[in-house]
Specification:
This protein is of the alpha/beta class. The protein contains two helices and three strands; from the N terminus they run E-H-E-H-E. It has one domain.
C-alpha cells in the first residue's frame, strides 16, 4: 500500500441500548462506513445473563442484543469494552 491513504475513524463512548438501537447511527452511518478502519469504545456491558435489575446501576447491566445491533448498523470493525 505504498502511497495509499488509509482512513481511520475513532469513535468514543458508543452506547446503543434503546428499544430501536438499530437506528442509533442512522444519521451518521454513511460517513462511518466510509472509513477503512472504524473503531469504537463501547460504553456498555455485553452479556446474556444480567438484566438491569441484577445490578445497582442501569448503566452497568443489559442485554447484548441492543448494543451489538446498534454497532452492527454502523458496521464497526472493532469495539473495545
Amino acid at each position: 500500500m505504498v502511497g495509499s491513504n488509509v482512513s481511520a475513524y475513532l469513535v468514543g463512548d458508543v452506547r446503543a441500548e434503546s428499544e430501536r438501537s438499530e437506528e442509533t447511527f442512522v444519521p451518521c452511518a454513511s460517513q462511518l462506513r466510509g472509513a477503512d478502519i472504524l473503531f469504537g469504545n463501547l460504553e456498555s456491558v455485553i452479556n446474556d445473563t444480567l438484566s438491569v435489575a441484577d445490578v445497582s446501576s442501569p448503566e452497568r447491566g443489559g442485554s447484548a442484543a441492543p448494543s451489538i445491533q446498534g454497532a452492527r448498523t454502523a458496521e464497526f470493525g472493532t469495539l473495545v469494552l
